[in-house]
Amino acid sequence: MKKGRSSLEFERPPVVEAAASVVGPKEGEGPFRGMFDQVETDPMAGKPTWEAAESFMQKEACRLALEKGGLEKEEIRYLFAGDLLGQLIATSFGVKELEIPLFGLYGACSTIGEALSLGAMTVAAGYGERVLAVASSHFATAEKQFRFPLGYGNQRPFSATWTVTGSGAFVLTDSSAVLKPRDRKGSGQAVITGITTGKIEDMGVKDSMNMGAAMAPAAYSVISRNLMDFQREERDYDRIITGDLGVVGRTVLLDFMRASGRELSEIHMDCGVEIYDREAQDTHAGGSGCGCAAVTLAAVILEKVRSGEWKRILFVPTGALLSTVSFNEGQTIPGIAHGVVMEHRDL
Amino acid sequence: MEVDKKMYESYIKEITPVHGRLRSMLQAFLSGGLICTLGQLVINGLLAMGMEKEDAMAWNQLFLIGLSILLTGLNIYPRLVKFAGAGALVPITGFANSMVAPMMEFKVEGQVFGVGCKAFTIAGPVILYGIFSTWVLGMVYYVLGLWKMG
User: Fold this and answer.
1) Which of B8, B75, B97 minimises the CB distance to A204?
2) What are the angstrom distances between the C-alpha of B23 and each of A284, B15, B30, B86, B90?
3) Cα distance from A280 to chain B (closest Cα, Å)?
4) Is the pLDDT score of A181 beyond 80?
5) Is pLDDT of A178 > 90?
6) Extents of the domains making up chain A
7) Mean pLDDT, rounded, for B93-107
8) Cβ separation A153–B88 shorter than 8 A
9) Taking a C-beta distance cutoff of 8 angstroms, is the pair A148, B78 a contact?
10) What is the mean pLDDT of residues A299-316?
11) Nearest C-alpha neighbor of A56 from the set A30, A24, A33
């Protein structure tokens, strides 16, 4: 059912039946250590190239999500997948063996929000009983593509973020198809009750080392639009969780919200701020990349919704839609964000 | 909510933390100075061994470049630059690092299009504009010479 200008409310909310996260060593040693399904101790995962390592992580995340749900790949109708690399090569090479009909997506670091939105729409509309949504990023592939070779000495500004190495995968299922509680200890499940789709917001930021500043207006816009479309107040959510704004972007978002009369500091969480220990792991403004929001959702957030600790959350992965070409040609950095409303359901 | 882009720019500048300039400059001064002192020590050592000055300077350059390449391969040079900044980028060691790092990174893309083409992605502009500036200065020197001012 359409809600407001850019939201949907699902009458039959798709269930997040299973989820899995695969991360690199740095993430595995961070504040969420012990919560990920798989930690690769070698950032190359034994592969000859960084790109192959990222593909492998995406494949592993999909495999684990299916395994945890007790599912076969043939039971998945569609795959919604994406990453940060040119022409989505991490995805193409990662998921080809799954042989699931694929929609390749690019929403920069917001990709998992886009994948979950489209996946939930597909399931809710009855076009598939089960779909898989996955996104990945890798520190080394992102540095190589967007910045400098790893061996090159340079100084990162404090506003820079650290691309998360990892992949998160989610099986979205029609509620009638979820027969018994699998892949969880408690008795609750997490369902996607609605989405708010973001539009491009561009405040003219040109500094690619300050992507939080470029993306925060997009997060602000989607959160405001969500509250308006669903006629909710911020306190109707236990948490409003952004993807990878980092410390600078978080400051902007909270300031913008305050200026429009909403106090978010108590309920706002940013995956990028939480995923690393900024001081000890020297990551500056926080984590970023498609993997950042995806693995945090799979490893941390989902369990809290399933257990009922959080009854309703708004998950808002954020993306900076720049390329090296647009950046070198002096263009600004357009931002985007996608809102996914996730709620707890007792069984 | 309407926000002016100019206002947003200055607001972002205000809330974004930056590196302390004085501290960065001090670190660069110390590290750059240490690299140069190391070079001088090598030259002095070679001169004491009875080498000609020009030869000693050439050997010193080879030594510093070799050392930088080794430290890049061992992933130590990036950590050095993190502390030293321009102090480790401006000396010839920084130039060597800027060539070896892409060669290592793009080795997997082949000897020609990987190592060969990408070797100069960072160092290329330095060479191009270095040569261009010397040409401009040479022209200035030549013109001044014509007017008997050089």
Assistant:
1) B8
2) 18, 20, 11, 12, 18
3) 15
4) no
5) no
6) 13-177, 190-346
7) 97
8) yes
9) no
10) 97
11) A24
Nearest CA in chain B to A51: B108
Q: Nearest chain A residue to B84 by CA: give it.
A: A155
CATH class of A13-177: alpha beta
> Does the CB of B15 have a partner CB in chain A at under 8 Å?
yes
The DSSP string of A163-185 is E--EEEEEEEE-GGG--S--S-S
Quickly state the pLDDT bin for B1 (edges 50, 70, 90).
low
Q: Which of A144, A158, A220 sits opposite B19 (nearest CB)?
A: A158
Please check the confidence at residue B144 and state whether its pLDDT lies above 60.
Answer: yes
Token pair, residue A300, equals 């941390």
> How close is the nearest chain A Cα to the Cα of B135, in Å?
27
Query: Residue B83: is its pLDDT beyond 90?
Result: yes
Q: Could you give the percent of chain A with pLDDT greater than 90?
A: 97
ipTM, two decimals, is 0.91
Average pLDDT of chain A? 96
- Cα distances from A221 to residues A153, A202, A228, A336, B37, in angstroms, run 37, 11, 10, 9, 55
Per-residue tokens: B82? 């993190």
- pLDDT over 80 (residue A138): yes
Contact at CB, A151 and B108, closer than 8 angstroms: no
Give the nearest partner residue to B15 out of A203, A217, A251, using CB atoms. Answer: A251
With beta carbons under 8 A apart, name residues in chain A contacting B18.
157-158
Cα–Cα distance, B80 to B82 (Å, whole number): 5
- Gap between the Cα atoms of B98 and A151, Å rounded: 8
CA A11 – CA A5 distance, rounded (Å): 18
Residues of A with CB under 8 A from a CB of B: 48-49, 144, 148-159, 203-205, 210, 213, 217, 220, 224, 247-248, 251-252, 255-256, 259-260
A65-120 pLDDT per residue, tens: 999 999 999 999 999 999 999 999 999 999 999 999 999 999 999 999 999 999 99
A151–B104 C-beta distance less than 8 A: yes
- The DSSP H or E segment spanning A161 is none
The partner residue sitting opposite A153, judged by closest CB among B18, B94, B105, is B94
Asked whether the CA dihedral A238, A277, A306, A71 is positive or negative, the reply is positive
B18 close to A (CB below 8 A)? yes
Residue in A144, A153, A220 closest to B97 by CB: A153
The model carries a pTM of 0.95
pLDDT tens by residue, A205-246: 999 999 999 999 999 999 999 999 999 999 999 999 999 999
- Contact at CB, A260 and B1, closer than 8 angstroms: yes
Q: A190-346, what's its fold? A: Peroxisomal Thiolase; Chain A, domain 1 (3.40.47)
